[in-house]
Amino acid sequence: MQLYEVTAEEYGQAGFFAHVYNTPEFSELNKGKTNGVHYLLIKDNKTRFSIVLGEKNGCLYSPFSAPYGGFNMKTPQRIAYMDEAVTLLKDWGKGLGMKIKITLQPSVYDHTQLSKWSNVMFRNGRLTNIDLNYHFDLSRFPHYEDFIDRSARKNLHKAMNEDFIITHLDSSNNSDVARAYSVISINRKEHGYPLRMSLQNVTDTVKIIDADFFVVSHNGIDVSAAQVFKVTDGVAQVIYWGDIKEYSNLRTMNFLSYKVFEYYHNKGFRILDIGPSTEDGIPNNGLCDFKEGIGCSVTQKMFFEL
Predict the structure, then answer these.
(1) Which of 45, 113, 193, 234 falls between 20 and 30 A from 81, CA-CA?
(2) Quick one: which of 190, 153, 186, 192 has its CA closest to 284?
(3) DSSP 112
């Protein structure tokens, strides 16, 4: 096989992407956050792999502005081809004098292929971090109360007795997007969590990504919200969700999470990716406990340097 650097258009013409963050549209939207974007194809008699990397701080990143990146493959590939692809990529990076940093999808997305990628990258590079990433298996939703913990069940019952109204907003309407974003922004400030996407980033991104926004109101006041992207077949990802602290005693997040799970179950999705509860591998114990309490499972999201 050989590695070729190509244009965004040629990369797009290969026509297969592991997830929405690897598309040329998403990469071009965010290329201003880098010193340059590189689109690569790895081919023999056909294109077997592709990857997009962004130059930042003297390194090459996949992703450069997203939760995860990695290689694209049209069909599952043999591990020998995967080894060769990583060797070619690593040698190409050396030619530029830069390390390559790759964050894989959480293993729940594709246990078989991602396990193989983890092995290949570990042998050809080094593992730099492991985050704990939570997800909800939507096939379990019809029996939701049978497996959540006792306190979560109690909190859900309390929330269901409140005068909550959940609204599925219009992602093409900037005012609706701003309405959900406002609640999330307050939540992040109250808890000291980072808010990496500005409102403008969000409104620009939902022009190219299929997104859903939800707001829960109580007596006419918005008290919690969620922003969700549809990232690949059968998988949606919570980008942000949260409530306003003043109303958390009403168990707003138990209500919101239940209703979001219900929505994507009814839409036929397989997995709702809730995201990590670790920062540089260090767990936020409160977030871990909450997500496990509402029925989420955890898998690894792995970071490598080549």
Answers:
(1) 234
(2) 192
(3) H
Residues in the chain: 306
Distance CA(120)–CA(211), nearest Å, equals 33
297: how many CB neighbours lie within 10 A of its CB?
A: 15
Q: Is the C-alpha dihedral spanning 255, 258, 262, 268 positive or negative?
A: positive
Name the residue with tokens 């790895």: 42
pTM, two decimal places = 0.94
Confidence check: pLDDT of 292 > 90: yes
Is beta strand 126-137 parallel, antiparallel or unpaired with respect to 271-276?
antiparallel
The three-class DSSP label of residue 150 is: helix
In contact, 142 and 233? CB cutoff 8 Å: no
Instruction: Give the rounded distance of the alpha carbon of 63 from its chain centre.
Output: 11
Tell me the longest C-alpha to C-alpha distance in the chain: 63
If DSSP codes are grouped into helix, strand and coil, which group holds residue 109?
A: helix
Report strand pairing: 297-305 vs 126-137.
antiparallel
Query: pLDDT tens for residues 104-162?
Result: 999 999 999 999 999 999 999 999 999 999 999 999 999 999 999 999 999 999 999 99
Specify whether the CB–CB gap between 67 and 231 falls below 8 A: no
Other Cβ atoms within 10 Å of 300 Cβ, number: 16
Other beta carbons less than 10 A from residue 99's beta carbon: 16
DSSP string for residues in 56-106: ETTEEEESSSSS----B-SS---HHHHHHHHHHHHHHHHHHT-EEEEEPPP
Tokens of 101: 């940093």
Q: Is 277 helix (H, G, I), strand (E, B) or coil?
A: coil
Phi and psi dihedrals of 130, rounded to 5? -130, 120
What 3-state class would DSSP assign to 117?
Answer: helix
